[in-house]
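Write out a sequence, fold above all:
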Amino acid sequence: DFGAGGVSVAIGELADGLKVDLDKVPKKYEGLDGTELAISESQERMAVVVAPKDVKKFLEYAAEENLEAVEVAVVTESPRLVLSWRGKDIVNISRAFLDTNGAHQETKVLVDIPEKKGDEVLDDKSFTECEEKNIEADVKAKWLKTLNDLNVCSQKGLVERFDSSIGAGSVYMPYGGKYQLTEVQTMVAKLPVLKGTCDTVTMMSYGFDPYLSSWSPYHGAIYAVIESVAKIVAAGGDFNKIRFTYQEYFRRMTEDPSRWSQPFAALLGAYNAQLGFGLPSIGGKDSMSGTFNDIDVPPTLVSFAVDVAKEADIITPELKAAGNKLVMFRIARDEYDLPDYDQIKKLYNAVHDMIQNKTIVSAYVPDRTGIVAAVSKMAFGNKLGVAFNSELKAAQLFSPEFGCIIAEVPADKLGGVTESYTLVGEVNDSAAFTYGNVTVTMDEALKAWTEKLDKVFPAKAAKSDSAVVETKLYDTKDIHICKNKVAKPTVFIPVFPGTNCEYDSTKAFERAGANVIVKVFRNLDAQGIRDSVDEFTKAIDQSQIIMFPGGFSAGDEPDGSAKFFATAFRNAKMKEAVQKLLDERDGLALGICNGFQALIKLGLVPEGKIVGQNADSPTLTFNTINRHISRMVYTKVVTNKSPWLAGAELGGVYVTPASHGEGRFVAPKEWIDKLFANGQVATQYCDPEGNVTMDSEWNVNGSYMAIEGITSPDGRCLGKMAHVERRGRSVAINIYGEQDLKIFESGVKYFQ
């Protein structure tokens, strides 16, 4: 994988002996000399080694995928790295020398010992002197201030800029619960396989606290490792299988021995934790450039814990039910605030067992900000309340709890808890947090948690209309019947540069019982374009269904989403083939996200034929929040006219991943009235209860009349924004609601 080191590193590390011809290396810009070609950063490239007999075949495969591939080097018997440019060798170095990693270097290190016990970072003393009469006001103020802290507050508006559902393998969505407000602490994803099924998941979590690390890089690294391990355990993973990788960032080093104190102490701390757990670190990345003039970055060693597990092992962190108890398992520390690894390992093994036997139904790892922040986040997802144990001292609510685990346990299973614990409280359905006479309502807590970054990374559009949209269900018996029956229909999925949903879409159709043809449109040269037109035309002629998948065709350039997609299908041959599929073979067309944008630009929705658009045609434009949105959306099926919706419930509410930047449906009132009157509005954005609304919490892109999907007049062409193909067993398990619209099954059944 090419990166910062460019050709010399990416290719230079593949074999002991290499001769690289820099003149053959593809370049975006002319004028680079040999040195620049050898060491310039070059992302989005890969170097592979193949046997001489396979070169021709490999290049054919690359061309088939529309990838530029060039033979640039050969492996040699002589163990030397040779780089030639313009016919001359400009580098000729022995592998033995390269393997020395350069000149041997040593330095003296003066380690700074923490000057004080870590009370300020390992214990919260702010309530020890608190006057009894002020305790209620102080607790509530501290509670809201904690939730508003930059290290605690919601980052939802930032997180949802990034696609979290691509690949249909995300076991966790970033925010879960009915209201998608409980943030997860661990990445969990299914191991992807092209064929068959697999119940293995990969897990990754991280740990780091800059305040603790600034006081003591040694302690900071230890607890970074412990925190990353605890998060894996809280999600259901077995810590005994964990491997670590570290991201390190320190101030710039000089000849001053004391400058080396921070990385030296941090690495010793991480090593101490590895020995304590008996687990290795298998990778990492470091930077020693964190200095600008006299400003240094805090000593930073972020521990990433990586694990493997089974789907059935995983639990989700949002609170589940009123009446359940919340308990906290603490880790032991010695007089130097160092952990007791034997106790921690015993505890983490016990927690894993209790998750496996369903004693624990949700769990969360508190950090420097303590119990309050962790429990609040657990509660947000389903807006359940918590009555805190009044015997807890106020200081305990906010004290740092690195490496500890808060667990939700059904009341009748409390006897099955095998480790000592502190009772934190009880879950209820009051939508409020109570501690003695202190009450923090859910609305107060959420306001404090969400408002901090809202002006920088808003989670909702600035001008959000909360009006409920009146909508009627279109119920008809007049549904198009296929006259050209096929036992196993064939689906053609065209792929353009930037398309990224063809694998998910293929799996969805194959799972539904269809044959699938996938072809990549090749545009590296004129002949590739001509050949692709012929291949696409042939594939359409062989198919009963054409499916336009999601992605960012041609990077959505130069004039909005799917223009490249639509332009190709206006080619006379392909246009004729599509119309024959629809008119002569009773075929179907489906477009999702970028594919919906293509359908609407072609006119296949709402017109049912390729006629293009005019000034007043319905279209899709930029989301009102002015950024990409990736989250789960609730949609309501409001027509049964389309064969694609035959398996869905009329009036039913379904929750589906959305991921788009230009998904806002807009159209003149005349068009909207016509679409509703004809039963061509397929689905509308709604809340979990099925109320169609303009509130941008649910109508995430601001679509007119909350329209999410539309059809052609007879319902055989369907376009929708939400990715119904991104579903499967154990996908998005922290999201509540039915995920399966049965669109693919309905499309296949239509022909049978």
About this structure: Residues 490-749 form a domain with the Rossmann fold fold (CATH 3.40.50.880). The mean pLDDT is 94. The chain has 22 helices and 31 strands. The first helix runs from residue 6 to 10.
